[in-house]
Amino acid sequence: MIDYQLLGLGAILLLSVLASKVSDRFGVPALVLFLALGMLAGSDGPGGIYFDSPVIAQFLGVAALALILFSGGLSTSWPEVRPVLGPSLVLATAGVLITAVVFALFAWKALGLSFLEGMLLGSIVSSTDAAAVFSVLRARNVSLKGNLKPLLELESGSNDPMAALLTIGFVQVLTRPELGTTSLLFQFLLQLPLGALGGYLMGRAIVWLVNHVQLGYEGLYPVLTLALVLLTYSATTLIGGNGFMAVYVAGILVGNSVFVQKRSLLRFHDGMAWLMQIAMFLTLGLLVFPHQLVPVIGPGLLATLWLMAVARPISVFFCLWPSRISFREKVFISWVGLRGSVPIVLATFPLLAGVEKAEFMFSIVFFVVLVSVLVQGTSLTLVARWLGVDAPLKKARGFPIEYDPLGGLKSDMKELTVPEDSPAVGQSLVALHLPKEFLVVLIARGNDYVVPSGGTTLEAGDTLLILADSDAFSRVQNQILAAA
Question: Residue 257 carries which DSSP code?
Fold first, then answer.
């Protein structure tokens, strides 16, 4: 029997990976295809797999979300997101709360829920998923102008903890009315700061351990970091902090540090994040019984429309009105409200807690995720071009050299492109008087590579592969990028 189960699991994972190729070719978000595979594999589909265990789904979902958030933090460049730190965090906190409140008003008046039940449902669907956004943009070779990409990246990575906090809080209020809303306020004031502190301390610990543990086998480093991520989440949660916030903060700190096996660990956690995304959407597809969804199609579509056209825009424009972000950019940010794996995880909490109407809420979450990814995901590039916020996607140049820092070495491998108006154009490397901590390893020029020497003359468009510490790189970057 186990052989058939492993055969089915392998086939589903293989089809999920191949589905990503369909996504790249036709621009259909891969998450929709993962969801469709889960439904086909379920009891109402040809797969015939009966799965109705919110306990397993929640266990898998919490672990998956922790790994997804850590991977998101690893890929977050602190120098890029620092200029948009303020507006991103406002959207990730106040924006999530406003979205939940506006959605709760609709659920209260139109869906027959109480206001507290509406707040619970609004909290579940209040966070966004940037992974879906950027996968669609990459498939269409589209990027975003200015600081839009780092703003959306930081907002979507940091708004999941707020959504989780509100969801768990309102589950407690509904199942334990004697606690009242005071406990929710206390949790809000305590959990996020403790989560950020726990993430900072564990991030420092992860970097120190990876650099000093000196494992005898390279393959054990991913196991080490995987264990530390799970410990970061669980330990922070047990002391009363927000574990999701902790793993995201830890990921940012680790990703912007120098440590051994960095490239291989980044690849490992990126692969784990994709595996967890696939697992969560397959789980949602298995948990949903399509024949039970027919009665909620109308309310589900109305709820999704309200979320996309009313709740999200109100929260974005309210939170960003003091900023210098243009009207067109605010409209685009409002449209980039794709829901991903997080609502799936959060929707299992009321199911397990025995909240009244939890199954109805789960069905609404299904429609919100499905329609959001289908409608917003497929129209993303058109909206970006219509609003004039798109830019050509600059594909990263590949180099035939990989570098993993050794313990005690503070330098890291970086890339620097020489612009046309740079004062370095036409000058030799020796004439630039580069600091000794700054080593040009290789130069990519057109389709060729140049092994540099002191007499090598720089040309416009050259991409330099550099080994340097942060201070030396910043000084030379300012020198090379300075307008002539």
Answer: S
Nearest CA to 333 out of 159, 157, 149 is that of: 149
Which helix (H) or strand (E) is 466 found in, with range? strand 463-468
Supply 420's token pair.
């046309």
Mind listing the pLDDT tens digit for each residue in 54-90? 788 888 888 888 998 899 889 888 888 888 889 999 9
In this structure, which amino acid lies at residue 369? V
**Which residues, in sequence order, are bridge partners of residue 439?**
467
Q: Taking a C-beta distance cutoff of 8 angstroms, is the pair 219, 366 a contact?
A: no
Task: Please give the average per-residue pLDDT across 388-397, as a whole number.
Answer: 72
Domains in the chain, CATH or no CATH each: 2-392 (1.20.1530.20), 412-481 (3.30.70.1450)
Q: In angstroms, how far is the first alpha carbon of the chain from the final one?
A: 71
**Run of H or E residues at 387:** helix 377-387
Residue 418 carries which DSSP code?
-
Residue 383 has pLDDT above 60, yes or no: yes
* Joined tokens for residue 37: 């595979």
Tell whether the model's pLDDT for residue 2 goes beyond 90: no
pLDDT by residue (tens digit) across 18-67? 877 776 666 566 777 777 788 777 766 777 777 777 788 888 888 888 99
Contact 72, 248 (CB under 8 A): yes
* Residues 6 or more apart in contact with residue 217 via CB below 8 angstroms: none
